[in-house]
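Lay summary. Proteins are chains of building blocks that fold into shapes, and those shapes determine what they do. In this project we predict the shape from the chain. Here is one chain we studied, written as its sequence of building blocks.
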Amino acid sequence: MNTRKIDPVTFAVIKSGLDTIVDDMAYAVMRTARSSIVRDVLDYSVTMCDARGRILSQAKTVALHLGAVPDAMEVVLDQFADDLVPGDVVVLNDPYEGGMHLPDIFMFKPIFAEGALQGFSIVVAHHTDVGGRVPGSNASDSTEIYQEGVRIAPMKLYEAGKPNKTLLKIIEKNVRLPDLVLGDLEAQYATCNIGEREFLKLADRYGAGPLNDYFDELIDYGEKLTRSAIAGWKDGDYTFEDTIDGDGITFDPIPIKVKITVKGDHLTVDFAGSSPQVRGAINSTLSFVKSATYLSVRCALEADVPNNAGVYRCIDVTAPEGSILNPQMPAAVAARALTGYRVVDTVLGCLAQIAPARIMAAGEGGNTVVAFGGYDAETREPFVLVDMINGAWGGRSNRDGVEGVTNPSQNMSNLPIETLEARYPVMMEEYSLRPDSCGAGKYRGGLGLTRQYRLLAKEAMLQMRADRYETAPYGLFGGQPADTSKNILNPDHAREELPSKLTRQVPAGTVVRHEQAGGGGFGNPLERDVALIARDLRDGKITRRFAEANYQAVFDSSGAFDAAATQEARA
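And here is the predicted shape, written in a compact code that computers can read:
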């Protein structure tokens, strides 16, 4: 029996207070980080947990990180349950001991009030480089975890406020850009301190005991709203399958299969039948698969559902051990984000059968990574550019997809050209939308992006991690699939079409072009408003050929779009 004494006004104030704390933390990371990938691309996340490791609130940062926090917290609590004191800070990145992949370093600061552990302030950040065989530590063609960089088991970076100089020295000596990596760790540490400070203000105001009652109530509230939504869905088993276009070692299609069982107010999400683990580095930890699943289900819920541990209580996630979604040591996982994106697409495709009005068609397939790493010819100083290209959403039940925007599973930004060219020996020759790359529909998908780079350094290691080469982003309910991706080397001379994933040394003057997939369409293309067709033609987003092929568009003798004739032809 619930005997908590909960005042609804106080409940709302504490809920909003937690949301404000994590958003302030998110801004602090952005203001203090050293690397472009954290400060400009925004590849980081923050959250607050209670003393039991349950998420209370999470910032509007990378959603794919945050659902993995409970598994990481479990490892930290198991290892340090009786060995945490004020001033401690725990870090980890080992995918086989709480982490996701090596560049993502988790940082946890336990918070003490009234002589007891009350919660955790947490920051996860993607670091520019953590060592390994390839600059950026993110290659798709690594074949075991030992090639991917320095592994950090859960250990204390600070002990009672004193830095662990041994661990910091190990990190410094094993990464290519120690100033950036240590600087970003300092940004994470400063942000954890901000979270602790603001959390303690809540504890001082309300008392630790009553505050924990409100935390329990908040998590129960998240669970209640989630169960209420699921209870409105039709019971049954629903299935969907999507595909990854090879692992960087081979180009055989890699299936991702899901079955969602709706039973009352609970979901079971089972990935049985998905590919066994692969040689390349796109294997994904189960914690990351859980995160991708939670955020996909969250997309089908109302906006007022709080993003906390209560949502997770309503969803069970399983994947076969030894599969690409639950690999065994020493499987490589550096490029696991790509598989996480495909898990999101697969789960959303399945949810479209359950809650069609709330699900969009497939987007670009997740961001593309283009990385250049090398050394300055004169100073021998290293450089590592990791450019993450965020592209397009699929069409929705009531509007077109958006272009030039982060994938729904993240909350990231495209690196500005001015920043890229100022910091790295690379010239951006083109940054544009791809006409006709969208999937046609009553509501079309967003357009994919093109980014074309010219290397200015003497030489560099080029890495590319792309997908949606063979399997196009799907449309929904009659909407058409989008165009696929392409990687092209030296498009204007000695043109070479590259595979979707590669690692290769390239000389000065090399031009690399990536043409990203668009988003799938939603609904019958012949139901598209002719005014929207005219607008897309006017804006150059689609061509006459695309309009004729997909919308039965009619053009007059001068080549102008004839809306009335198009309407008549459709009728």
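What the prediction tells us: The mean pLDDT is 95.
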